[in-house]
């Protein structure tokens, strides 16, 4: 293993998405990631289907496609740490690990002696990352947190959906569990920062990452719009609160996006659209004016865009230097020549005798590139390997643990 993190070993006790997403990023960067799962059932998302991965005969397996999205390059170890022997084995592994990821409820692992305060006495260099819905402190700390709930509570859904008064108006969640994904990314950043600090201090630390905190932090300009005005932003559909025109427009055969970022681009748009007079109209000559007169400008542009196809508009606008693009479904995404050129669809051989299609990592490191070592593991696929290599257990000892339901 020659990845940037090939010297790092991670014990991943997390389930579902935010924690596993962080674990997969670390694994893609070369870390050895041991995913600890419940015997018999494993990570909840193993069963979140259909769809399921196909086996060698082309039939549905019991491995949900959802699980595959966040568990590449990991080893699966089944271990019941509600049992004392399971707890002992986790502690032995912790003594050999650099990072622990977990997303249990606040205090949930303390009952098993697997909380940070307990484990740092075993391994003071341990970087222990806790991912929860609401963090380790505050009145909501003990609540369970789910992406959908946090998108609502954290304000994202108040900004997403058609404007009030339009048909179909109302709050809408983002089409993927974006808060979970962003939390996984922030957790990864925190782990990398703590590992870097450990190089200087020699000791690890506890990282407290909360979905709600991340969701609010990622409101970005919308949060700043509110904090600077005291006025809560409203839903604008596909429009932008600070830039106009920056939204979808109808074409002769569908819809496409125009994303004008400055007044020069707006003038070019007007020329291509056969409406050069709009660029000199005081209502539209500056972005500030266009934001104020959005309701007058957008209908004028929409009346013009319906007379050409999406492909025609994109060809014309790209030549003029006006940012624009199609609205693709996923079939079109993976057929796109740029997506194919970047190799964003990969396949890895799996333990079912077939191959699992996956989305590639977006990280491109020149000296330590991402390596796709193995597909997301079957439940317990590496239990014997991990217990033998890292803990020195014999086949007889492992068999006894299986008989006792610990492994």
UniProtKB/TrEMBL annotation:
The yes or no answer to whether the keyword Transferase is present is yes
Q: Name one Pfam family in it.
A: CoA_transf_3
> Is Transferase set as a keyword in this record?
yes
Matching Gene3D superfamilies: Crotonobetainyl-coa:carnitine coa-transferase, domain 1, formyl-coa transferase, domain 3
Alphabetized, the UniProt keywords read: Transferase
Superkingdom of this protein's organism: Bacteria
One of the entry's Gene Ontology molecular-function terms is: transferase activity
The UniProt entry, under PANTHER family, shows: SUCCINATE--HYDROXYMETHYLGLUTARATE COA-TRANSFERASE
Which protein are we looking at? Answer: CoA transferase
Q: Which organism is it from?
A: Pseudomonas benzenivorans
């Amino acid at each position: 293993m020659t990845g940037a993190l090939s010297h790092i070993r991670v014990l991943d006790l997390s389930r579902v998405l935010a924690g596993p997403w962080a674990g997969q990023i670390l694994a893609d960067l070369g870390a050895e990631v041991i995913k600890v799962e419940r015997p018999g059932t494993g990570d909840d998302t193993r069963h979140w289907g259909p769809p399921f991965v196909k086996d060698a005969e082309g039939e549905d397996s019991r491995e949900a496609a959802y699980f595959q999205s966040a568990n590449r390059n990991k080893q699966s170890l089944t271990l019941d740490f509600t049992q004392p022997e399971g707890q002992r084995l986790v502690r032995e592994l912790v003594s050999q690990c650099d990072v622990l990821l977990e997303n249990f409820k606040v205090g949930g692992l303390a009952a098993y002696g697997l909380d940070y305060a307990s484990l740092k006495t075993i391994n003071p260099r341990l970087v222990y990352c806790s991912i929860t819905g609401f963090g380790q402190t505050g009145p909501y700390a003990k609540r369970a947190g789910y992406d959908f709930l946090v998108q609502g509570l954290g304000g994202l859904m108040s900004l997403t959906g058609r404007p009030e008064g339009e048909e179909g108006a109302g709050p809408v969640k983002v089409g993927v569990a974006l808060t979970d994904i962003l939390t996984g990314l922030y957790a990864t950043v925190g782990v990398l920062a703590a590992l870097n600090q450990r190089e200087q201090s020699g000791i690890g630390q506890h990282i407290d990452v909360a979905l709600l905190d991340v969701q609010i932090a990622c409101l970005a300009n919308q949060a700043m719009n509110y904090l600077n005005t005291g006025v809560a932003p409203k839903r604008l559909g596909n429009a932008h609160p600070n830039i106009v025109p920056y939204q979808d427009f109808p074409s002769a055969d569908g819809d496409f996006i125009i994303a004008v970022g400055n007044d020069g681009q707006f003038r070019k748009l007007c020329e291509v659209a056969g409406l050069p007079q709009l660029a000199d109209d005081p209502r539209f000559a500056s972005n500030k004016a266009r934001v104020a007169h959005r309701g007058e400008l957008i209908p004028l542009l929409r009346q013009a865009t319906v007379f050409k196809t999406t492909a025609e508009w994109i060809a014309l606008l790209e030549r003029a230097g006006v940012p624009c693009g199609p609205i693709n479904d996923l079939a079109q995404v993976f057929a796109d020549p740029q997506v194919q050129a970047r190799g964003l669809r990969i396949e890895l051989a799996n333990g079912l005798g077939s191959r699992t299609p996956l989305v590639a990592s977006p990280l491109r490191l020149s000296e330590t590139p991402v390596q796709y070592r193995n597909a997301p593991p079957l439940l317990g696929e590496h239990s014997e390997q991990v217990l033998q290599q890292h803990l020195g257990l014999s086949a007889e000892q492992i068999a006894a643990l299986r008989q006792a339901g610990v492994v």
